[in-house]
Design brief:
There is one protein chain. The chain is an alpha+beta fold. The mean pLDDT is 93. It is globular, with a radius of gyration of 17 Å. It has a single domain, classed as Cyclic Phosphodiesterase, Chain: A (Alpha-Beta Complex), CATH 3.90.1140.10. The strands form 2 sheets. The protein has a 5-stranded antiparallel sheet. Helix 2 runs antiparallel to helix 3.
């Protein structure tokens, strides 16, 4: 158990939502340019709250304890998934995402508490504001400017109403192993939120 591992903190998605995400990916990937986007396997889509990166194995216990404390006052909540967009913008899209809406502010509070807990352990704070989303796909390297623009236009004109509402009852500390076939995810610990 002495090696480093890539880790992140996320909310895991229920199966019906993953099925809806796959349908949306199929709808988008059926349009040209084909092969320009590397779609994320729906089983590997998470609502990421904090990416920790390379983490020494001996620090995992301390991270779990800090996350337990951070989650203690935060109640479970519902969130809705819908709306399509891309980072950084539709003219030069790199990432295609679906939005996550949680109007009460609990999700933002949870993410802030996790950010504070991790900063207390020496992990760098995220420079950008938290923008809750689910990554559907990433553009492959070497995609032409024209194809990038076309994908941006497809994203802009594709209406994505709500894909559903899900309950967040806890968070997970997840290990990510990058393999040639794609990332393999292992949940190291699940931490429950307060019953609301």
């Amino acid at each position: 158990m002495g090696q480093d591992m890539r880790t992140f903190i996320a909310i895991e998605l229920p199966e019906p939502l993953k099925a809806s995400l796959r349908e949306l990916q199929d709808r988008l990937s059926a349009q040209p340019p084909r092969g320009a986007v590397r779609w994320v396997q729906p089983q590997g889509i998470h609502l990421t709250l904090k990416f920790l990166g390379q983490t020494p194995a001996h620090r995992i216990e301390g991270i779990i304890e800090a996350l337990r404390s951070a989650c203690l006052p935060v109640p479970s909540f519902a969130y809705t998934v819908g709306g399509l967009g891309c980072f950084p913008n539709p003219v030069r899209p790199r990432v295609i995402w679906v939005g996550v809406q949680e109007p009460t502010g609990v999700l933002s509070r949870l993410q802030g508490a996790i950010e504070d807990a991790c900063a207390g352990l020496g992990f760098e704070r995220e420079g950008r504001a938290f923008h809750p989303h689910l990554t559907l796909g990433r553009l492959r390297d070497g995609v032409s400017t024209r194809d990038c623009r076309t994908i941006g236009e497809i994203v802009q004109r594709t209406e994505v109403a709500s894909l559903g509402t899900a309950a967040a009852r806890g968070i997970s500390l997840i290990r990510s192993d990058l393999r040639p076939s794609g990332a393999v995810y292992t949940t190291l610990e699940e931490i429950e939120l307060k019953e609301s």
